[in-house]
Amino acid sequence: MQTPPFPHESATLALEGPAGPLEVAVDLPDGDVTPRPVIAVICHPLSIEGGSMHNKVVTMAARALRELGITTVRFNFRSVGASAGTYDNGVGETDDLRAVAHWVRNQRPDSALWLAGFSFGAYVSLLATGALQPQALISIAPPVGRRTWDFSQVQPPAHWLVVQGDADEVVDAQAVYQWLESLDNPPQLVRMPDTSHFFHRKLIDLRGAIQHEVRRWLPDDSN
């Protein structure tokens, strides 16, 4: 499979991944905002529980960033949608993310790389930060304490935002807060009251929280 060029307009394409083709959706900023030299790769929730790049939290996070002039790249992990392979408990999915991020950097070397993820996607993007060294990271409902996922060795960047619902029925919010408090360099934390794991009736609030917190991370010419 030939490496596809980075599109000049929003498009869905197939990228060669470690386990076969990966389904990738590139979305350019809204037409009424100035494009910024930033590309955010966004990771979706758990594949074996119906997670995909079309998840509403993922698409809202992407929308929030595009409204700031950021180009977004969503993709389906192995085994989801048109992406080949089988679920690999975060290990192979981290390789998938690396493949997408390397493609972005090769195609757009002058753009800053941001990572974002929701739930399982937050875990995968955290795992990849040490190797990829993104300029910023957005973690939405990171699944601390779920399954056997180990958060002890993550290396998040200085620009790190965590958004967590206090009424999360899937992730233990208190476990998330305790983990963050134990870190030497904790992130910017937004706690959303009365908010469930999938941000039911809170998606607009999520968009506002993301935009408010990350706006100051944009390149200087965006101000």
From TrEMBL:
<protein>
    <submittedName>
        <fullName>Alpha/beta hydrolase</fullName>
    </submittedName>
</protein>
<dbReference type="GO" id="GO:0016787">
    <property type="term" value="F:hydrolase activity"/>
</dbReference>
<dbReference type="InterPro" id="IPR029058">
    <property type="entry name" value="AB_hydrolase_fold"/>
</dbReference>
<keyword id="KW-0378">Hydrolase</keyword>
